[in-house]
């Protein structure tokens, strides 16, 4: 098995952190996003969305999308469990994972692309829309702070994939000054706790 | 159990179609999105994202997010299987579901909101960004047509949740003139086939 990625990209970090929690060793091949290697025909044959990471299985099958890759490894290596054990816990983990992805991760990514113009060689950017996305992401910092006042982890009593998604999103947001506010102490305490896990440095 | 929704909303259709495929009867309670009922404190206590659908369990637990709700019912009622049977099939269904959600469903929703200004009473709209999203969605119509030239269904050999997501997204897109092109005959044939399922009228 092998993963095509760019180590410094936040999406790559999500899978790396997940695999580190599982104790799974992996071979990596770096893709030069800045040069557009991900948009070349050879890479699009691996992933029609042109995004990293992509997992190549030993039989040559390619799997894309972070959550699909992580869930695949959850099934191959069930422990430690990171997606939930019962039907209700799994649904709760997925609900919070989606809250994070759609309301924090995506707006943060759009803020980055539209404020910095990082990919302006290949897409039209709208800086005002980027600023709007930044505010949308920040609004969810407050919601997460309220959640973490009641529960130690994003999806409940224990560390799950939802925490990995939230940590990688929040850390990525710093590039466009999306930051935890001083008064969001529950969110900050959670951030300190999750950041201290060895997997956070994967 | 009960689902809070708005029947004409495309997100509600995704869950309704899924439940129809499973043969699950459900009680529904309508939420007036136009009047902002979903943003009132009473509803936000059920779902902090302020979105429909929300599933209320018999013990008063609330579950939000279409895919979390559908996967919960997949576990309670495994047949007919709509999320995949093996680890690899499940990952493939999830990969294609995410391709659809992030590249077709989300851009279509943003095109709708930013072109029509449907929610301009509660959000800033950027019509040019809406037009850009429309083009992004249309680019995936071509990718789906190529996929469906090789496979009868979005995720492979058989009907899955990925087909439900694609159908509901494509049908919703018509409101902003996002439509299957005449030359996309594989996509059109798939659309005809999937639309003829009784669940498509749920």
From TrEMBL, chains A, B:
<keyword id="KW-0808">Transferase</keyword>
<dbReference type="InterPro" id="IPR034345">
    <property type="entry name" value="Gtt2-like_N"/>
</dbReference>
<dbReference type="Pfam" id="PF00043">
    <property type="entry name" value="GST_C"/>
</dbReference>
<feature type="domain" description="GST C-terminal">
    <location>
        <begin position="86"/>
        <end position="202"/>
    </location>
</feature>
<dbReference type="InterPro" id="IPR036249">
    <property type="entry name" value="Thioredoxin-like_sf"/>
</dbReference>
<dbReference type="InterPro" id="IPR040079">
    <property type="entry name" value="Glutathione_S-Trfase"/>
</dbReference>
<dbReference type="InterPro" id="IPR004046">
    <property type="entry name" value="GST_C"/>
</dbReference>
<dbReference type="InterPro" id="IPR010987">
    <property type="entry name" value="Glutathione-S-Trfase_C-like"/>
</dbReference>
<dbReference type="GO" id="GO:0016740">
    <property type="term" value="F:transferase activity"/>
</dbReference>
<dbReference type="Pfam" id="PF13409">
    <property type="entry name" value="GST_N_2"/>
</dbReference>
<protein>
    <submittedName>
        <fullName>Glutathione S-transferase</fullName>
    </submittedName>
</protein>
<dbReference type="InterPro" id="IPR036282">
    <property type="entry name" value="Glutathione-S-Trfase_C_sf"/>
</dbReference>
<dbReference type="InterPro" id="IPR004045">
    <property type="entry name" value="Glutathione_S-Trfase_N"/>
</dbReference>
<feature type="domain" description="GST N-terminal">
    <location>
        <begin position="1"/>
        <end position="81"/>
    </location>
</feature>
């Amino acid at each position: 098995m092998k993963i095509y990625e760019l180590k410094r990209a936040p999406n790559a970090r999500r899978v790396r952190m997940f695999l580190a929690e599982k104790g799974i060793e992996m071979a990596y091949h770096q893709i030069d996003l800045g040069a557009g290697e991900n948009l070349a025909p050879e890479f699009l044959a691996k992933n029609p969305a042109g995004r990293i990471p992509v997992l190549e299985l030993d039989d040559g099958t390619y799997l894309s999308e972070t959550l699909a890759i992580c869930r695949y490894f959850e099934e191959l290596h069930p422990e430690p469990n990171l997606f939930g054990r019962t039907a209700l816990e799994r649904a709760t983990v997925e609900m919070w994972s989606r809250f994070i992805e759609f309301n924090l991760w995506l707006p943060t990514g759009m803020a980055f692309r539209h404020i910095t113009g990082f990919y302006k060689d290949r897409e039209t950017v709208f800086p005002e829309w980027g600023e709007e996305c930044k505010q949308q992401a920040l609004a969810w910092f407050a919601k997460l702070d309220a959640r973490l006042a009641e529960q130690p982890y994003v999806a409940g009593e224990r560390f799950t994939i939802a925490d990995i998604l939230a940590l990688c999103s929040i850390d990525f947001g710093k590039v466009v000054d999306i930051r935890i506010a001083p008064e969001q102490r529950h969110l900050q305490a959670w951030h300190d706790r999750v950041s201290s896990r060895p997997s956070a440095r994967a």
